[in-house]
Amino acid sequence: MISLKDKKIRVYLFAILFLFGVVFIFFNETGVLKFVKLRSELKDLNHQIDKLQNENKDLQAEIDSLQQKVPAKIEKEAREKFGMKRQNEKSIEVIEK
Predict the structure, then answer these.
(1) How far apart are CA 35 and CA 90, in angstroms?
(2) What 3-state DSSP class applies to 4?
(3) Residue 68 to residues 10, 63, 65: CA-CA distances in angstroms?
(4) First-last CA distance in the chain
(5) Which residues neighbour 24 within 8 Å (Cβ) at sequence distance 6 or greater?
(6) What is the pLDDT of residue 82?
């Protein structure tokens, strides 16, 4: 028959091993906390990829419209980027404070 002292020792030993196992699962190099952190980083990177893909689509559409020599697009770019204007046209410059 197992004495009360032996039972206590076994319970304490089991509790210590269990606690050690839980600590190991959470805090080791490939533990749960690392997994949660990496999953969050993956979500952020996927969001950034989606944003950049949308930006690439917009830029590709702009390139296509300029390559097709759409007059309205070319005029808009000339006005915005280079400050060009038509002949006999006055330009008004707005200065924000």
Answers:
(1) 62
(2) helix
(3) 81, 9, 5
(4) 91
(5) 31
(6) 85
Per the listing, tokens 């296509």 go with 64
- Name residue, tokens 């280079």: 82
For 9-48, the three-class secondary structure string (H helix, E strand, C coil) is: HHHHHHHHHHHHHHHHHHHCCCCHHHHHHHHHHHHHHHHH
Residue 81 in contact with residue 87, Cβ under 8 Å?
no
Q: What pLDDT tens digit does each residue of the chain (97 aa) get?
A: 678 788 888 889 999 999 988 888 877 878 888 888 999 999 999 999 999 999 999 999 888 888 888 888 888 888 888 888 888 888 777 889 8
pTM score: 0.55
The identity of residue 31, as a single letter, is G
